Amino acid sequence: MINSVMLIPRGNTSFSIYANNVFRSMKKLVKRSNELNVKAFTIDIPHWNLLDVRFSHIIFAKKTLTFFIKSLGLSGDILHLPVHSFLPYLSVLKKRFEYIILTFHDLLPYLPQFPEHKEHPMILALERKNLYYVNHFIAISNNTKKDLCKLFGIPEERVSVVYNGVNHEIFYPRKDKRPLDYPYILYVGSEYPRKNMITIIKALYKLKKKYPKEFGGVKLVKVGVPEVERFGKMTINVINKLDMHNDVIFTGYVQEENLPYYYSHAEVFVYPSLYEGFGLPPLEAMACGCPVITSNTSSLPEVVGNAGIMVNPLNIDELVKAIYDVITDESLKNSLKKKGLKRAKKFSWEKTASNILKIYKNVVYSYEK
């Protein structure tokens, strides 16, 4: 019997959603198994002030984690860490498990072109050092695997690609409960610069000026927790400058069970991100029958395939044309809806969990040989 433990980060982050979905699906798959036993524990991960990280902070965090592990009696064959934020404490965690498996979602803290995601040099150095303790890595896309091998020199055979899933019991087309009574372009995500939301605002502004008849009543709806500081202010400044106060709607946080209604009734879902480790919102949109426009960069082509329209996220005119084509061409819109629904069926959390369980077995049996 292989005994595995997953540590799930507390909260409602994308990492927590990933870990909870994977673990729930694992439990179903191993229900009658006499080969695998899976457990999970929810835990707080320390969040660092970028300007004030001291060695004493890390020591304190390690002691707290050690106490947590001992009090729960955590041990087993495999420890699966579903996010790289656990890396600084791996020396503590490794002592009670034979094998460590670590999921990498993206390499943002290590990419200088995205300074808003930068971590403290001390944390980065400790993370790099502790990669030594990891027996096998899971990357959520081929793009993340490529970055992982390139930046850390990890051999390709030590990295398995396992795509994220989508919950088809929640994300499917809805015809009822239209959340808004006007036509809208939908964006789901944050206002971090790499997400490129400002480009959507500028694109809609151009469309309204050039095609007032077709786009006069169309609004941009942003779903997600508002970025009050820094990045939120940048977004508001652009809205003020273009005088689009009535054209950009911020819904704030929307419960997962209500998200499908926003996807299902949108004219189009637009996601011109500059970099994604995977890109779950476009997959959710496709599963709900919403036509998708996204970037031709990073992992997004892996997720959307030929089921959406790909644009250069730095070329606003490409985005303008793509939005115009989808909203004004009913035939194109319906074609994208059908392709998206078909594409989304290729992804599920059950498939994700099944592939990860295979990795568990392969890691244990390969080391035993």
Could you explain how this protein is built, in words?
The protein is α/β, with parallel strands linked by helices. It folds into 2 domains: 2-165 and 348-368, Rossmann fold (3-Layer(aba) Sandwich), CATH 3.40.50; 184-344, 3-Layer(aba) Sandwich (Rossmann fold), CATH 3.40.50.2000. The protein has 14 helices and 12 strands. The strands form 2 sheets. Strands 2-1-3-4-5-6 form a 6-stranded parallel sheet, sandwiched between helices. Helix 11 (300-304) links the parallel strand 11 (292-295) and strand 12. Helix 1 crosses helix 14 (349-368), helix 6 (197-210) packs across helix 12 (316-328) and helix 10 (280-287) crosses helix 13 (330-344). The chain is globular, with a radius of gyration of 22 Å. The relative contact order is 0.13. The mean pLDDT is 89.
Which descriptors apply to this entry?
369 residues; alpha/beta; Rossmann fold; 2 domains; six-stranded parallel β-sheet; 12 strands
